[in-house]
Amino acid sequence: MNWLLVLLTLISAWIIVFFLAVTRLKSHVAPYGPALLIKTQIGVRTIERISKYKFWDYFITFFYYALPVFAAAGVLLLVYEAFLVLSIPRSAAPSLSYVLALPGINPAIPLVWGIVGLIVAVALHEASHGIAARRFGIPVRSTGLLWLIVPVGAFVEPDEEETKKAEPKVRAKIFAAGPGTNITLTVVFLVLSILVAYTFAPVAGAPVQGSILPSFHPGDVIQSIDGISIPNVTALSSLSFPPGTQVEVTLIRDGAHVTESVVYGVYVTAVLKGYPAYNAGIAPGAVIIALGGKTISNVTAFERDESSYVAGQATTIETYDGTSYHYYNITFASKYAYEVASGISSPGIPKDTPFIGIDVSIMGLTLFDQYAYLNLLKNPASAGPLGFFEYLSLPFHFELPLPGTMLSSIYTNPITLNLEYLFYWLFWLNFALGLMNLLPIVPLDGGYVFLNMPALQKNKRARDAIVAGFSLLVLFLILWELIGPRII
Question: Which of these three, 362, 383, 400, is where a domain ends?
């Protein structure tokens, strides 16, 4: 498919629709940059009915008082991340596309689920502003959709003049309702996502995520090697077949049992230019037979024997390329010096830690631990104190919270799988939108709550200076996450 042609067609069609809408439907449609504001009274009537419940008074008041606490936590998180970026190598600096939580721009967010999640998050965020306004007797003039080829959001327009006349505390409560709703929805959809994850079960075996050997395909599930059962990824680390020997690997591929014959051993999967292994002539695909004369039967043995050396010490490596054996003399470099050169200012390792500049894995495999993954989906705390953030960062490791090629290692069905996608992205985008709007920076909701705090109203000049100062500080902390790794 010619995606450039599709894109040009969509843009051309949108220009035509945009022109016709703003010229022929002026009473219901208004331009908003390249997007269209499509106004409707249906939302106004819905907000009018929903806002009659007394529950909203408690909800709005709770988040009015809770929002400053959440905002302070958000700022502290940004400060913590500002120090973390000091250890990020320049080569690993995040791109702008990953910072913007917009489907179609952020490659970690799938287009369809991202649009659905964003519409729900924005629509309910805006609706809560309207509900809060009505609880204080302020009319809602219009509601509608923000449309840019596809729906990208929603809007609610409380009467601007009446809002300006309201007490500062009332205005602050109206602004606090938006992020308050997103926080509430974050918790609700997190719980639903976790409950759906409990319907998934792991397939016994070691799932293959990638390999340098053509014998293995992404999605394969290794179940035995030379008759020895492989119930999980950990079982591979304890194997001790003689390196360089032929073994029979039984696996599940596309629902069928398949047997592949491969050379067993610890494979070199990558070689770093300019470091000892590269300088000695070791190439990716080589099987390490021995290090310093000691047989290397698995990755644990390689790491143990390597750690017995120090930087500057010499040894020998024996490898096998499938047809012949090769012997190399190497002198260990310093891993500490390598990490400093990579941009890590303070590596937490001794300066004489040995390093030869290779990546290794058993049989050249990159594996997927379906048990740990499902434990994380069912209980984010299983990953430790920062488990929630690991759960939140799943899209940056896989396209969806359940990676497509790894579905063969998990028992599920299309209904629960799609429910998991739906609830996860509703959780994720509500969290992103709520967190962003908590921050005390104008023109975000948190900034306007700060601006309308009764304690700051006695001296409006000082108030404006304080809010502007905080806004600039928060903006700097956000931009620092992009700039910091690139200049250190």
Answer: 362
